[in-house]
Amino acid sequence: MDLIPAPLLTVMLCALAYLLGSILFALPVCQLWQLPDPRAQGSGNPGATNVYRTGGWLPALVTLVLDAAKGWLPVWLAHHAQLSILSQAMVALCAVTGHMVPLFYRFQGGKGVATALGGGLALAPVTTLLLAAIWSLVMWRWRISALASIVAIVSGPVLSALLEPETLPLFGLLAILIVVRHRNNLIRLAQGREARF
User: Fold this and answer.
1) Is 150 helix (H, G, I), strand (E, B) or coil?
2) Cβ–Cβ contacts within 10 Å for residue 44, how many?
3) If you average pLDDT over every residue of the chain, what do you get?
4) pTM of the entire structure?
5) How do residues 123-139 score in pLDDT, each as one tens digit?
6) Which uninterrupted H or E stretch holds 179?
């Protein structure tokens, strides 16, 4: 990678990240376990939470790991290539964007939380692990995945500013993207209709 100029390498890794992000692993996982299409079940979101509702912990865990890995891998490659923090953040955002508006599924994707987790672990592990802890605590207390995701992601800019300030732009943009993707969940939460575990 040393022979490739940094701007070109950034563009290449952003493209790779978007294409990886566009693979909605919930769909092949559900096919492997002979489960219904998650987009036609529950919330309609092709993610680990919806897979859990129809198939239990194992396929949900596999989905979570694969969706996180597609965020982690391109950012790890960018870090290994010694690209700037800004470039690594761009790569992470492209992976999350790929999951939200995937090329391979008519641009109809998921919420991007697991993919953001993977990208965050590669770029800002301290902040991301704390956000995962926040998610776990909220999930344990209220048993609502969407609420846990929203509380965790809006905490991201604050924690990153305190702990890893160079990654603040990433967590700020992730917070906006993921909250917008949860807009229907926010409506259901306000009406008391959001599904619990």
Assistant:
1) helix
2) 13
3) 96
4) 0.95
5) 999 999 999 999 999 99
6) helix 168-181
Q: Is 60 within 8 Å of 35 (Cβ atoms)?
A: no
C-alpha torsion sign, points 176, 154, 182, 37: positive
Phi, psi of 111 (to 5 degrees): -90, -20
Tokens of 82: 């010694």
Q: For residues 48 and 126, give the distance between their C-alpha atoms in angstroms, rounded to a whole number.
A: 23
Q: Which two tokens stand for residue 33?
A: 């376990």
| Token code pair at residue 90 | 């761009």
Token readout for 123 is 């770029």
Q: Which token pair is 34?
A: 């002979």
CA-based nearest residue to 171, from 118, 134, 124: 124
- What are the Cα distances from residue 63, in Å, to 25, 43, 48, 113? 6, 16, 5, 12
Q: From CA 83, how far away is CA 88, in angstroms rounded?
A: 7
